[in-house]
Amino acid sequence: xxxxxxxxxxxxxxxxxxxxxxxxxxxxxxxxxxxxxxxxxxxxxxxxxxxxxxxxxxxxxxxxxxxxxxxxxxxxxxxxxxxxxxxxxxxxxxxxxxxxxxxxxxxxxxxxxxxxxxxxxxxxxxxxxxxxxxxxxxxxxxxxxxxxxxxxxxxxxxxxxxxxxxxxxxxxxxxxxxxxxxxxxxxxxxxxxxxxxx
Length: 198
What we know:
Blueprint: H1 2-43, H2 45-63, E1 68-72, E2 75-85, E3 89-98, E4 127-130, E5 135-138, E6 162-170, E7 178-182, E8 189-192, E9 194-195
Parallel strand pairs: 2-9
Antiparallel strand pairs: 1-2, 2-3, 3-6, 4-5, 4-7, 7-8
Helix pairs in contact: 1-2
């Protein structure tokens, strides 16, 4: 009888030890998974978010302070950069936002010249106006009449969309630091030229 109780006691202890071991293993694995998740969340995701946040924070100040912003109805045009390049031209860039309910074809932005019709919906008709020097600078174009500017994919800007754009012009004289950017029926956008774009 004593040996039977001893065997049963050992089996009970063994069962308890195995059960306890399994509980600890499951808890350890579960905790490790949670630790891994929280570890990856704290070591990977936040650092990515922090990096991304830093990038967004560092990019946002460069993009947010627009040099000029004008609107005509539901269409808002922002100029975010206007710099002189070493090649003797000026590159102007920014965004156009269509906050209306209809597609914006940008038809009058391509200009009135017959040659510019080949550009379709684009900024081919944009210009820089030097009020002080009383001179107007048109978008640069190649020998085929294609502008050095954005051509809108799909023929314009969809409702609710924001699209980036650029246009290149001959550079005004070095002494000219302020010009008006004009395109289509949008109001003139007064901008200052910076020197040396990358």
